[in-house]
Amino acid sequence: MNAAARPSRRKWARALRIALVACVALLVVAGLYLAWRLTRDEPVDYADDAAHFKYGSTGGDRLTGIPYWLWVALPEVFPEYLPDKRPGHGYASFGMVYEAGKDPRYDLPAGMSRRNVRGIDSVYLNCAVCHTGTVRTAPGAPARVVLGMPANTFDIGAWGQFLTNVARDTKFTPQRLLDQIRVMENDSHRLVDKPDLINRLIFRYIAVYRMREQTLSLPQRLSFIEFAKWGPGRDDTFGPNKAFFNFNMTHADPEELTGFADFPSIWNQGPRQDAHMALHWDGNNDHVTERNLNAAFGTGAYPPSIDADSLQRTARWLETARPVPFSDLFPVDAALASRGAPIYQHYCAGCHGTKAPPFVHQQRQPGEHVGEVVPIAAIGTDRRRLDSFTWELAVNLGTNYAGFEPDWGFDKPYPRRFTRYHKTYGYANTPLDGLWLRAPYLHNGSVPNLRELLEPAAARTKIVYRGNDVYDPQNVGFVFNVPEQGGRRFFKLDTGQPGNGNWGHEGEAFGTYLPAEQKQALLEYLKTF
Amino acid sequence: MDARKKRKILIAVAVLAVLGVIVGITVWYKIFRDVPQPEWITKNQSDNFLYGSIGGEADAGIPYWIWLVLPRMFPEYLPGPGGYASLGISWEQGREMPAGFSKKTIGFVRVGENCAICHSTSYRTKEDEVPKVVAAGPGHTADIQGLILFFTRCAGDPRFTADDLLAQIDLVTKLSFVDRLIYRFAVPQVKKALLDQGKGFAWTARLPQWGPGRDAPMNLTKFNLLQMPADDTVDNTDFPAIWHLAAREQAGRTWSDKTPNPIPAHTMLMNLDGATTSFRSVLIDSALGLGAKNTPFFNRRIPQLLDWLREFRPPAYPLPVDAQKAARGKAVFETECAACHASQRDNRMGTVIPIAEVDTDRARLDAWTKAAADGANAKVASLGITRTPMVKTEGYIAVQLDGTWLRGPYLHNGSVPTVRDLLEPPARRPQTFYRGYDVIDAQNLGFISNLAQVKGRKFFLYDTRQRGNGNGGHLFGTQLAAPAKDDLIEYLKTL
Question: What pTM was computed for the model?
Answer without folding.
Answer: 0.95
